[in-house]
UniProtKB/TrEMBL annotation:
Record flagged with keyword Hydrolase: yes
Coiled-coil segments: 236-263
Protein family membership: Belongs to the peptidase C48 family.
Residues of the Ubiquitin-like protease family profile domain: 328-573
Name this polypeptide is given: Ubiquitin-like protease family profile domain-containing protein
Keyword Nucleotidyltransferase: no
Record Pfam families: DUF8039, Peptidase_C48
One GO process term, biological-process aspect: proteolysis
Keywords: Coiled coil, Hydrolase, Protease
MF terms in GO: cysteine-type peptidase activity
Length: 616
């Protein structure tokens, strides 16, 4: 870690982080971190999404270097402080002034007190590791092998407890108490009200979050890797498939409403529904069961136990209507999407839910491990044929009558970007043009600005967006960027005001932008580039002061409506004719989630507009 160039004999030739830096998260270090990252990329072929991981390691190395300097040069064999001169070996990295400051900090009583506390804690940890030289990684694999488990990992708190079991097989009472506290927390945390970003283990231990607490899990292992595939330009054939699917769904929606009106039913889609949590067709109590999904084909995806008890809750929340609480024991199809994603563990795939509780539709649960012959499920969500605005991977889907099991023929899935772009064209023609809003709002092409392109072709993304922003430097303008996380994945809205250097982040899953570091880095770089080309002068300490506002927008209640939410966010912003988006969203449209009618409105507008375009 190189030293700062302040009072340095080599002037501007060396740039880095001074050894006097005690807070690696200090924003004043952002410029130095950018240069460190640039140097890493110059020497190694590494993806942009590994930036945070590498810089965390750099901070760890800096702390280690400071400790090395203290123990080697500033202490004698008895631990007494020594007022040593700057080591000649490091004279090219550390300036004399910096060395004197470094020494003076270590003379203070505060530093000595903290140092002694840390030394005692390290020599006698509260919960000592009891597996000798067997690391967490090998311990985890040995447990999974011994249990003949198909899993690839264990929950962090389970592994933490196993690492503290002695040779006699006994567990200390304080360790068991922490484990039980973790189990209780996993069932009691309310995701919608939870503001603590720490893991369950960190909360139980009452310590700050640290991604390497269970060694072997390591730094950077904080989210799943993205399997990114290049998106293709939608063809007329794909748009035709999208139109047919939309038309069929809109027609079905209209028929369903007519049937409900005729039967005297009221639409309760915009109200919270509470499940009675008891189904007479399933035995009362806990029963073994098979778990099925109806799409893309009707098939068994796992095994578990269904809990059919009156008043049953899931993580202190009522179960979704028509669903029961299920514990997942075996995942036959680990990549299968959960019918209801688990907000507590952030699990969206069946493989992530093994060993935990999830909600499962009653008509897709078969008790007693018998094999069903017919599905009772009727999916009333967004059909996978039009999941071009949905949140999960693109899966070729069609109705059972449209799939030949004998030939294996499948209907091709339409393009995500095609539907998004078509609706943006609708907004331009029907809202922006007639209301004269094209001077205040604009769209960025999601095909050129998705996560796939940002990681693979960052320079091309920057060039494209900078050119768009520079074309409107004489006025304040809000640019809509519908952002896709890759491989036809999750959709969210990033609205950018380059004039005021403000970014509005609207995610219907309420996930923070730090989940997509590559996206944030590129957007920040683009704004800084536009600032430089506009010759805007800002103090050096404020060079990275770009405002990111996370908007508390309506939240989706399933895993397939994020695209429709993204489209509606853009529409409502245009209707409000505001280039600023309040942090708690617009008063006129504020709600916990969009009703069925509000989402159907987007589908009908899209369907009608595709017909009007006559491009098919």
């Amino acid at each position: 870690m190189m030293a700062s160039n302040e009072d340095h004999p080599h002037g501007d030739e060396t740039v880095g982080v001074p050894i006097t830096c005690d807070n690696w998260r200090n924003k004043q270090l952002n410029e130095a971190k950018d240069k460190i990252w640039s140097e890493i990329k110059r020497c190694f072929d590494i993806e942009e999404n590994r930036r945070d991981h590498c810089l965390k390691l750099a901070g760890k190395l800096l702390r280690g270097f400071r400790t090395f300097l203290s123990t080697t040069f500033l202490r004698d064999t008895e631990g007494t402080f020594v007022d040593a001169e700057l080591p000649s070996k490091y004279a090219s990295l550390i300036s004399p002034k910096e060395w004197e400051t470094f020494k003076s900090k270590r003379k203070t009583q505060e530093f000595k007190s903290v140092s002694e506390t840390n030394r005692q804690r390290a020599s006698s940890p509260a919960y000592p590791y009891r597996k000798g030289r067997v690391g967490y990684g090998r311990l985890e694999q040995s447990i999974l092998t011994k249990e003949n488990s198909s899993e690839t990992s264990l929950p962090a708190h389970v592994l933490w407890k196993e690492a503290r079991v002695g040779k006699d097989g006994k567990i200390k009472e304080d360790v068991q108490q922490i484990f039980e506290k973790c189990e209780t927390l996993s069932q009691s945390i309310v995701p919608y009200e939870d503001t603590d970003c720490r893991s369950i283990l960190s909360r139980a231990l009452d310590v700050p979050e640290y991604s390497g607490r269970v060694r072997g899990k390591g730094f950077g292992i904080t989210q799943k890797s993205l399997n990114i595939k290049k998106q293709k330009t939608p063809s007329n054939k794909e748009l035709q498939q999208t139109l047919e699917a939309l038309k069929a769904e809109v027609l079905e929606l209209r028929k369903e409403r007519e049937r409900d009106r005729a039967a005297g039913f009221k639409d309760t889609s915009d109200k919270d529904s509470i499940n009675c949590n008891f189904q007479p067709t399933i035995p009362e109590g806990i029963s073994p069961c098979h778990l099925y999904l109806a799409r893309p084909t009707y098939r068994m995806v796992g095994k578990g136990k269904v809990h059919n008890n009156l008043g049953e809750l899931l993580h202190t929340k009522p179960l979704p209507t028509g669903s029961l609480k299920v514990s997942v024991d075996i995942a036959l199809e680990k990549d299968a999407l959960l019918p209801h994603p688990d907000d507590v563990s952030d699990a969206t795939l069946l493989g992530d839910a093994i060993g935990s509780f999830v909600a499962w539709p009653t008509d897709l649960i078969i008790v007693g491990y018998e094999t069903p012959t017919k599905s009772k499920a009727k999916d009333k969500g967004i059909a996978r044929e039009i999941e071009s605005v949905a949140s999960q991977k693109e899966i070729p889907v069609a109705k059972k009558t449209e799939i030949s099991k004998r030939t294996g023929a499948k209907k091709k899935n339409p393009s995500n970007v095609g539907v998004i772009n078509t609706y943006m064209r609708y907004l331009y023609d029907k809202l922006m043009g007639p209301r004269g809003l094209e001077q205040r709002f604009s769209f960025l092409n999601p095909m050129k600005t998705n996560l796939t392109e940002m990681i693979r072709k960052p320079d091309e993304v920057r060039t494209y967006v900078v050119e768009r922003f520079m074309a409107d430097t004489d006025r304040e303008k809000l640019f809509f960027l519908p952002f896709n996380t890759g491989d036809g994945g999750h959709w969210l809205l990033v609205a950018i005001n380059p004039f005021k250097e403000i970014v509005y982040y609207l995610d219907s899953l309420h996930i923070d932008w730090t989940t997509y570091p590559a996206m944030k880095t590129i957007v920040d770089t683009i704004i800084q580039t536009v600032r430089a080309q506009r010759k805007i002068q800002v103090p050096k300490r404020k060079a990275n002061n770009i405002t990111w506002n996370r908007v508390e927008c309506p939240r989706q209640r399933n895993n397939i409506d994020c695209g429709y939410y993204t489209l509606r966010f853009m529409k409502e912003t245009l209707l409000m004719d505001r280039t600023d988006i309040p942090s708690d969203y617009f008063d006129e449209y504020r709600c916990a989630y969009y009703s069925k009618d509000q989402l159907d409105e987007i589908k009908e507008e899209l369907c009608q507009f595709i017909i009007e375009l006559q491009v098919l």
